[in-house]
Specification:
The structure is a homodimer. In chain A, about 45% of the residues lie in helices and about 15% in strands. In chain A, the strands form three sheets. A six-stranded parallel beta sheet of chain A has the order 2-1-3-4-5-11, sandwiched between helices. In chain A, strands 7-6-8-9 form a four-stranded parallel beta sheet, with helices on both faces. The longest helix of chain A is centred in the last third of the chain and has 17 residues. At the A-B interface, helix 4, helix 5, strand 2, helix 7 and helix 11 of A face helix 4, helix 5, strand 2, helix 7 and helix 11 of B. The structure holds a DNA duplex.
DNA sequence: CTGAAAGCGCTTACAG
DNA sequence: CTGAAAGCGCTTACAG
């Protein structure tokens, strides 16, 4: 490792001056700057991040705390964050909590969970990151971040009521509104729904969007064709079976994620019904599988990369602003129109 | 942040002694140790990782350099690595190069690529990680890691001939052998292949495994039913079309990844042929889509998590051993038998 | 415009 | 068994 000291020797100026040049301070003559910069380039000098972090107030580093990188949404969000941050000259450091991998589901608010979160924050505080982005695996209310943490903080893909902590979320309500309208086309129809788990925020908001769309078209809300799923493909299969048994004529089936839509496809297939021909089916998420279902599934794309970029921009704004009143953001989803929805003539 | 100094004041012993206790040195009286340990617990002291890294030789930290976390294999591999490392008391730090996101394909051996790799290594060297694991996005020969890097290094999901650098790979040849035998069942059959890109290592090894299996069953290798794909679902579609046009009777189709198998399904569907009934189809990777294809696709699972665990164990062995002659590892893949292969009676 | 010096929070010989 | 001191590679007032 080449150090400031060696740079100083090679260039014949003091360590302090080299440091000033490295940090873009203006109190250096152009001549000196040029010469030293040359030597820096030649030697391929890289600042020692730890030494800098130990001494300086800013490390130009953002810490990412992520629920679990194996969640389908996480890698893309992270890429969005890193892309924007890199563009702005910040490094990024990632702590993977592995909650889903370790504990499956239902770990929210357990003691172990709180301890893990706390420990991750402590670590980033020790490293003196300039800010922290919490990347959630799914929409939930995040309330367990120690209040004493003073570092600028942004919550990504979840909500929080924590003071001074903006969050970036998708607009689930609008997305479901859009999709319901799409399913409706220009007629009044009977659109069944397979929701996600009951108290899940995605479920609640999407149901609201669905209801609003019905209302806008003067269609009455019918609870009997709303079934509660659990996001798994089997629950899509099972609820589709029940819906078809209970209802003679169903125009469309709106599944609140692609997995359940895939399950519904499976049942429909067994029943000899063709999605997009005999019944409309829509999903949500636009995961890999959506394009490969037969027929390809019409679904809502979640702009993961964009969410990440926005989270990054928000933390940067927070770091650089005085007021610190950054807005919560609701990112719009995009309807991907494939062949599983019947088109009106 | 509470520091060693404060700990020292509170407990009435010197900073050095507190440090010794923290590091489990034996040269401290039980009484002192107990008292100080108590205070450490009370205060919730966390060592400043940067200060320690600046001074000490070991940081108990492993650096992960990953091609791109959006590659389908990466999150699971990373989870395997982190799981094992956490178990052994090591932290982990991740640098995401985002090669695929930034440059698509064909970036290997470009100048930008080399610079990015070099920079990542420099950074981890500055941080004084105890070791580095390079997590590749696909099998390739990795030859651009600066020789001057002296840190223990393991290459994961790729090859390297670099001195003193073990790698963890899957056994592509054995996997293809297994699958070909499975496709063969107990009879001689005509098994067509859609390979990956031509000089790709996965392609080469899998083709070898395929040939060996044919040989073992006394079947002659027929180049005319081997088509070169490019891993995309379209190339699966197109090559399937060509194969079916050129050959009247094909028993089976072995696609070297699931995406191409999905493309083949698409063509088969258009041609009125049913996988698992009219023709056997097999994929490779066991990605999400494999289970949701209709019928569900028989494929090879790549034990990603296990690969990660093995990489972690190897780097640990390397750090703690004197000889440093760690073995390259070839992990076996697992055949996932679903409904796309015709069973012999 | 330039540099000497203090100090960030630790670890590690070394002396006692 | 315990502690004073040097030093890791930097940044930052401050003096000149």
């Amino acid at each position: 490792m080449i150090t400031l000291k060696e740079l100083s020797q090679k260039s014949g100026v003091s360590i302090a001056t080299v440091s000033n040049i490295l940090n873009g301070k203006s109190n250096v003559s152009d001549e000196t700057r040029k010469r030293v910069l040359e030597i820096i380039k030649e030697t391929g000098y890289k600042p020692n991040f730890m030494a800098r972090g130990l001494r300086a107030s800013s490390t130009k580093t953002i810490g990412l705390i992520v629920d679990d990188i194996t969640e389908f949404s996480s890698p893309q969000i992270i890429n969005g964050i890193m892309s924007k941050l890199e563009e702005k000259g910040y490094r990024t450091i990632l702590e993977n909590l592995r909650f889903y991998t370790k504990w499956g589901h239902g770990w929210e608010n357990t003691e172990d969970y709180k301890k893990a979160i706390d420990s991750a924050f402590q670590e980033f505080i020790a490293i003196k990151t300039d800010g922290i982005i919490y990347v959630s695996g799914h929409a939930r209310e995040i309330s367990d971040i120690p209040q004493k943490v003073q570092i600028p903080l942004v919550v990504c893909y979840a909500f929080t009521e924590r003071e001074n902590t903006p969050f970036i979320m998708i607009d689930d309500e609008d997305a479901a509104f859009q999709m319901t309208e799409h399913l409706l086309g220009n007629r009044k129809k009977k659109i069944a729904v397979i929701t996600g788990t009951e108290s899940n925020i995605h479920t609640i908001k999407r149901l609201q969007g669905y209801k609003k769309a019905l209302q806008a078209h003067g269609i009455e809300y019918d609870e009997s064709i709303i079934k509660t799923g659990d996001w798994s493909d089997n629950s899509g299969y099972e609820n589709c079976r029940i819906l078809l048994k209970e209802n003679e004529k169903l125009s469309a089936l709106f599944c609140f994620n692609d997995m359940m839509a895939a399950g519904a496809y499976r049942y429909l297939n067994e029943a000899g019904l063709i999605p997009g021909k005999d019944i409309s089916v829509a999903g949500f998420d636009n995961r890999d599988i959506a394009a490969f279902l037969n027929p390809p599934l019409t679904t809502m794309e979640i702009p993961l990369f964009l969410i990440g970029e926005n989270a990054a921009q928000t933390i940067l704004d927070k770091i650089n602003s005085k007021n610190g009143n950054e807005q919560n953001l609701y990112i719009q989803c995009k309807l991907i129109d494939r062949n599983s929805v019947i088109k009106d003539k």
